[in-house]
């Protein structure tokens, strides 16, 4: 294989690595939110599905029993995590396009 093919392959790999690094940074900073239908409770989860923010309007404690609020929070976290999973899947699908096509380099 002539030297310029190796150079082309190396350039393709470097471009792929740069794009994967960019996607990784996007994922590390990504969050997803979910809010109750009455807009009194909201949650934010990070890319790993961890709860990173919980917002409870004081009116929520007067309007809902504690067990209802607890269930609502758990369900909202699950909804936000589902949204985050969809976002992760979309980013992974986008990286599938990064697979080098060595035929293009030949």
Provide the fold topology.
Blueprint: H1 3-29, E1 31-35, E2 41-46, E3 51-56, H2 58-63, H3 66-96, H4 102-105
Antiparallel strand pairs: 1-2, 2-3
Explain what this protein looks like in three dimensions:
- With 106 residues, the protein is of the alpha+beta class.
- It has helices at residues 3-29, 58-63, 66-96, 102-105, and strands at residues 31-35, 41-46, 51-56.
- It has a 3-stranded antiparallel beta sheet with strand order 1-2-3.
- Strand 2 (41-46) and strand 3 (51-56) form a beta hairpin.
- The longest helix is centred in the last third of the chain and has 31 residues, at 66-96.
- The chain is rod-shaped and about 75 Å long.
Describe this protein with a few key phrases.
16% strand, three-stranded antiparallel sheet, alpha+beta, 4 helices, 106 residues, 64% helix, rod-shaped
Helix content: 55-70%
Q: How many E strands?
A: 3
Name the helix and strand elements from N-terminus to C-terminus, one letter apiece.
HEEEHHH
Structural class: alpha+beta
How much of the residues is beta strand, in percent? Answer: 15-25%
- Strand order in the sheet with the most strands: 1-2-3
What profile does the largest beta sheet have?
3 strands, antiparallel
Determine Rg (CA atoms, Å).
22 Å
Compute the separation of the termini in Å: 9 Å
Low-confidence stretches: none
Can you tell me the overall shape? Answer: rod-shaped
């Amino acid at each position: 294989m002539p030297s310029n093919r190796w150079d082309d392959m190396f350039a393709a790999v470097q471009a792929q690595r740069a794009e994967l690094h960019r996607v990784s940074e996007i994922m590390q900073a990504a969050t997803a939110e979910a809010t109750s239908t009455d807009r009194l409770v909201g949650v934010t989860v990070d890319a790993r599905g961890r709860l990173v923010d919980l917002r409870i309007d004081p009116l929520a404690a007067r309007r809902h029993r504690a067990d209802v609020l607890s269930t609502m929070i758990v369900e909202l976290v699950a909804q936000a995590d589902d949204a985050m999973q969809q976002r992760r899947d979309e980013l992974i699908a986008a990286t599938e396009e990064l697979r080098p096509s060595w035929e293009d380099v030949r």
